[in-house]
């Protein structure tokens, strides 16, 4: 995946060619490599499950910085908030969407949401462009205000490191191609956007089809602020697998075809998910708990499309405190 990401950029930098189609193809291939790094390397590493050696996990976790994002922001958003508060409105940052998207029946609804199952895909493609420009800074500031970052000095150091990493990324992925290649800057910029569109669409589809689907629950705390289900049951209720029998797809997406197993055991490397899945399924059935799974990626995407459509039509669901 690292080679798939870096080799096309090196070709653009050092191999003379004049084909616009080849330029876009190389950037798009690099975008697929970006998605592969995000799902198959960085994801495990920042969960501490890529290697038994923590220095290896830390080193490979930095690969997200090579994609223009930030490892510390991602760990707070994903490991802390998403895995702790999966599908809980206003707590899980994966479903805290901008005003034109609605990922939870408990989120406020507006007239745009009626059409979101048509236009959401375009914004999925722009998601990583948002990450590498403004979203990381916005989230990092919000996490500081939430108390997830220790003190002002830690926050300031984090911002400076974030800026430095992003300067490095934009330098080799955008500026150097503009300077060293024979193509006009606007063509390089368009190809760069195409690369991120492929990355954003790929990653978002893999993660959204695991949680924003009709089978998944969107539970809320009770009046005392407690969840009714304990952690393992909660993860089974809010998470869905897809294409569980496809070894090839599992390899391509870093085992995230088995999101149920990942959410139950995030400290286990993804290479083991397919092996433990039958045990997890049998145990869930034994205790009368759900085990959600779609047969293929296509069926999972169709289910996500239906969920977006339904969320655009259904009214705001009452919060737990309103249920008497």
Automatic annotation (TrEMBL):
- Single GO biological process annotation from the record: lipid biosynthetic process
Question: Which residue ranges run through the membrane?
Answer: 20-42, 118-138, 159-180, 186-207
> Which InterPro entries does this UniProt record tie to the protein?
FA_desaturase_dom, Fatty_acid_desaturase
| Any single Gene Ontology cellular-component annotation | membrane
A Pfam family of this chain = FA_desaturase
Q: What is this protein called?
A: Acyl-CoA desaturase
| CDD domains per record | Delta6-FADS-like
PANTHER family, A to Z: DELTA(5) FATTY ACID DESATURASE C-RELATED (PTHR19353:SF19), FATTY ACID DESATURASE 2 (PTHR19353)
Provide the Fatty acid desaturase domain boundaries. Answer: 20-293
Alphabetically sorted, this entry's keywords are: Membrane, Transmembrane, Transmembrane helix
Name a GO molecular-function annotation. oxidoreductase activity, acting on paired donors, with oxidation of a pair of donors resulting in the reduction of molecular oxygen to two molecules of water
């Amino acid at each position: 995946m690292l080679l798939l990401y870096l080799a096309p950029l090196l070709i653009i930098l050092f191999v003379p060619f004049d084909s616009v189609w080849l330029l876009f193809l190389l950037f798009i291939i690099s975008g697929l490599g970006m998605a592969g790094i995000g799902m198959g390397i960085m994801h495990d590493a920042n969960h501490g499950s890529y290697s038994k050696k923590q220095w290896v996990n830390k080193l490979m976790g930095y690969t997200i910085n090579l994609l223009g994002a930030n490892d510390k922001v991602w760990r707070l958003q994903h490991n802390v908030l998403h895995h702790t508060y999966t599908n809980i409105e206003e707590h899980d940052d994966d479903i805290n969407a901008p005003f034109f998207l609605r990922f939870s029946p408990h989120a406020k609804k507006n007239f745009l949401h009626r059409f979101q199952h048509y236009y959401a895909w375009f914004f999925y493609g722009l998601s990583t462009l948002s990450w590498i420009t403004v979203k990381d800074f916005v989230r990092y500031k919000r996490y500081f205000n939430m108390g997830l970052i220790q003190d002002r000095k830690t926050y300031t150091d984090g911002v400076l490191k974030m800026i430095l990493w992003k300067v490095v990324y934009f330098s080799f992925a955008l500026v150097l191609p503009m300077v060293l290649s024979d193509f006009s800057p606007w063509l390089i910029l368009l190809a760069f956007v195409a690369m991120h569109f492929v990355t954003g669409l790929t990653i978002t589809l893999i993660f959204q089809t695991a949680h924003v689907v009709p089978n998944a629950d969107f539970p809320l705390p009770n009046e005392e602020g407690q969840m009714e289900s304990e952690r393992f049951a909660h993860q089974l209720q809010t998470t869905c697998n897809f294409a569980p029998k496809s070894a090839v797809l599992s390899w391509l997406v870093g085992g995230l075809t088995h999101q149920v197993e990942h959410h139950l055991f995030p400290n286990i490397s993804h290479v083991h998910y397919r092996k433990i899945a039958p045990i997890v399924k049998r145990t869930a059935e034994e205790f009368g708990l759900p085990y959600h799974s779609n047969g293929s990626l296509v069926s999972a995407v169709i289910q996500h499309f239906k969920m977006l459509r339904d969320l655009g039509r259904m009214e705001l669901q009452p919060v737990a405190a309103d249920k008497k």
